[in-house]
Amino acid sequence: MRTVGVEEELLLVDPETGEPQALSSAVLARASRRGAEEDVFEKELHSQMLEFNTHPQSGMGELGAEIVRIRGEAARHAGEAGCAVAALATSPLPVRPSISMNRRYQWMAEQYGIATREQLVCGCHVHVSVDSDEEGVAVVDRIRPWLSVLTALSANSPFWQGRETDYSSYRSRVWQRWPSAGPTELFGSADRYHQRVADMVATGAILDEGMVYFDARLSARYPTVEVRVADVCLHADTALLIATLVRGLVETAARDREAGREPLDHSVSLLRLAGWRAARSGLTEDLLHPATMRRTPAETVVRALLEHVEDALADSGDLERARTSCAELLRHGNGSHVQREVWKRTGSLREVVTTCVQHTQA
């Protein structure tokens, strides 16, 4: 069974006003006092963010329980520092982000200017173990068309600087401002992948391998494929669904490689359009079907994803849970839908944030 780990980025907010608070150092200081068991928290680019990493897990039940537990710990540490955590991929309220003070982040601020200052966005990254770089690159090549569906399922960022964006995942559009972000062409081998990364670093436009922000990449730290297209999910159950589907995609791709099935050769241009459509529509309008790259109802596309990974999910015991979670999202809406419903009902972005604080800890 392939192991899975999740990285989530949370927004630190004032529990009364909903405004982002630059208190990550204070929250991390409180977490560090709890001992080695709480070393899952990390500083992020902006001081209004807090990141945590789960441990690798083989069972999805254990992974889901860990996400819930660490979210609870994050809420406790934040409360001690005078703020709250919200699983929001962008801040609905206006904010002037504060860049964390270290050499790496200062280099980014100098290199990328306003793009760095405006990158107060929170994502959900999923790591799935692979046997080798060759298998990992074969997986990266084969999962490319399906990644936009994960963006649609996780979409949780309809507001930006106090305004409705008309996007379900505006975070993904802001993320595309990094020069190395987005979908990739087919690599074909680990050697070609590593050569491409080396060439990118050699340009000087990025600092190192860690700044290769492909939608899916080989992790620079772990023997995993890392998928980076999802918004941080409002609900822990949705984060678990994204992790479940990513493991299903990785396992299906590895099996396709073993069976000699070639990856779909969609162009980067089409993949970018699929990502844009997913960010714009979420689950409320059409998406681009991963096989045909033509507009198709979102429910049909989600069903196609489940069918694509069906054997892998059945073998891991995750199929029925994934089907149920997808059906719930299609019926009741994702985080973006929840935020818009609160806004429609109250007309208050403060209420949007405070409601999402409650959902984050539920």
UniProtKB/TrEMBL annotation:
Pfam families: GCS2. SUPFAM superfamilies: Glutamine synthetase/guanido kinase. The keyword Nucleotide-binding applies. It catalyses: L-cysteine + L-glutamate + ATP = gamma-L-glutamyl-L-cysteine + ADP + phosphate + H(+). It comes from the Bacteria. Its EC number is 6.3.2.2. Coiled coil: none annotated. The keyword ATP-binding applies. GO terms for molecular function: ATP binding; glutamate-cysteine ligase activity. GO terms for biological process: modified amino acid biosynthetic process. Keywords: ATP-binding, Ligase, Nucleotide-binding. ATP-dependent carboxylate-amine ligase which exhibits weak glutamate--cysteine ligase activity. Belongs to the glutamate--cysteine ligase type 2 family. YbdK subfamily. This is Putative glutamate--cysteine ligase 2. It comes from Streptomyces asoensis.
